[in-house]
């Protein structure tokens, strides 16, 4: 595979105030234009958006167009691209019971309308990628929704969006839990299976987040390989996660360097990025981070990715193949771990 140059993105929510479920903000909110300028300065190439990261969900059409144009102008001025728009179907009172799996048809309609509006916004800021994180499409109480019906509703919802706009791509970002006890379609594999049942499978793919795979008890690099094989890995949310707890969104490689290495290696080996896919990070500044260091986790994540890329590209394929041919897997392990240790 060619050694192309990777391009990096992050979301405006990755530079945030440090508020958490247990306490209020501890840092000031930073102006969007300043976030874009700073991300550019630290070597990023684009921004990921929720629909309301661009413009409030309550704005009328004219205001939406005006504000989206302003956002696009800021991106253009810095030579930054918009990677995707994700409809935020989890904060509004109408999405208390979820979006497309809500039991109330009026709430399902809200989810659909808001998602179509997100597609319009995506056009306004110059991307065809719609990321779908099905935050509340699951249950706290097992019998609350019908899981068979929920499966059909997911496909119906994707079909409605594919039909609404013939250019957009739907990119599912699956996560097994949080905020729900159990989410429907908890893994990328589930979503890929559904993709083939939609009206246009070639426009349905996945965004794999390292932490989400770990929360599902899966290896992120194997998950990525599976999606790459299907030619459906169209986005990644690289980060890290220390065991089975809340979604930590830790800096990439900060917990498990070997797992991070394997993600970088598989992405590089199988041409991720060759068709414009971006290396996206979904990493959270810690509550303890000082305002001056609010971009450090983004600097670190990119730098660690690049160090691991250098390690991956320094590996000798013949050596690896000879370890495999002789079934000397411990020898291979030492070879990899010593490379990671700079030996
Ligand atoms: C949630 C998550 C989201 C998505 C975008 O865990 O990762 O931020 O990445 O909606
Ligand atoms: Mn994410």
Overview of this structure, please?
- Helices cover 43% and strands 11% of the residues.
- It has twelve helices and ten strands.
- The protein has helices at residues 32-41, 51-54, 61-77, 105-125, 147-164, 188-195, 210-215, 220-229, 257-269, 296-314, 317-325, 329-340; strands at 8-10, 46-50, 81-86, 129-132, 138-139, 169-172, 182-183, 204-209, 233-237, 279-280.
- Strand 1, helix 1 (32-41) and strand 2 form a beta-alpha-beta unit.
- Helix 4 (105-125) packs parallel to helix 5.
- The longest helix has 21 residues, at 105-125.
- The radius of gyration is 20 Å and the shape is globular.
- Bound molecules: D-xylulose and manganese (II) ion (MN).
- Manganese (II) ion binds next to loops.
Rg value: 20 Å
Going by CATH, the architecture would be Alpha-Beta Barrel
In CATH, what is the homologous superfamily?
Answer: Divalent-metal-dependent TIM barrel enzymes
Q: How many strands in all?
A: 10
Topology order in helix (H) and strand (E) letters = EHEHHEHEEHEEHEHHEHEHHH
Largest sheet features: 4 strands, parallel
CATH fold call: TIM Barrel
- The fraction of residues in strands falls at 5-15%
Helix content: 40-55%
Ranges where pLDDT stays below 50 over 5 or more residues in a row are none
Number of helical elements: 12
Q: Note the gap between the termini.
A: 26 Å
Number of domains: 1
Structural class: alpha/beta
CATH class: Alpha Beta
What are its keywords?
343 residues, globular, TIM Barrel, 11% strand, 4-stranded parallel beta sheet, binds D-xylulose, binds manganese (II) ion, alpha/beta
């Amino acid at each position: 595979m060619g050694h192309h140059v990777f391009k990096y993105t992050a979301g405006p929510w990755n530079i945030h105030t440090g508020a958490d479920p247990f306490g209020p903000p501890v840092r000031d909110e930073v102006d969007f234009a300043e976030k874009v300028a700073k991300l550019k300065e630290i070597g990023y190439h684009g921004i990921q958006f929720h629909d309301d990261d661009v413009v409030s969900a309550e704005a009328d059409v004219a205001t939406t167009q005006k504000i989206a144009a302003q956002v696009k102008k800021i991106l253009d001025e810095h030579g930054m691209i918009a990677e995707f728009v994700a409809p935020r179907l989890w904060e509004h009172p109408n999405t208390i019971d979820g979006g497309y799996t809500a039991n109330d048809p009026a709430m399902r309609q809200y989810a659909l309308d808001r998602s179509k509006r997100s597609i319009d916004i995506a056009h306004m800021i110059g991307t065809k990628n719609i990321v779908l994180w099905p935050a509340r499409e699951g249950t706290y109480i097992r019998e609350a929704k019908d899981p068979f019906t929920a499966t059909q509703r997911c496909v119906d919802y994707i079909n409605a969006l594919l039909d609404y706009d013939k250019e957009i791509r739907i990119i599912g970002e699956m996560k097994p839990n949080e905020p729900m006890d159990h989410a429907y379609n908890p893994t990328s594999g589930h979503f890929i299976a559904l993709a083939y049942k939609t009206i246009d499978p070639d426009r349905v793919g996945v965004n794999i987040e390292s932490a989400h795979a770990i929360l599902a008890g899966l290896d992120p690099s194997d998950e990525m390989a599976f999606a790459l094989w299907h030619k459906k890995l169209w986005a990644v949310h690289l980060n890290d996660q220390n065991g089975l707890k809340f979604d930590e969104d830790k800096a990439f490689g900060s917990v498990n360097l070997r797992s991070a290495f394997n993600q970088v290696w598989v992405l590089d080996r199988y041409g991720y990025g060759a068709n414009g896919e971006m290396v996206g990070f979904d990493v959270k500044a810690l509550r303890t981070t000082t305002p001056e260091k609010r971009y450090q986790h983004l600097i670190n994540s990119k730098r660690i990715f690049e160090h691991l890329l250098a390690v991956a590209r320094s590996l000798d394929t013949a050596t690896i193949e000879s370890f495999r041919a002789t079934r000397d897997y411990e020898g291979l392990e030492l070879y990899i771990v010593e490379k990671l240790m700079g030996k």
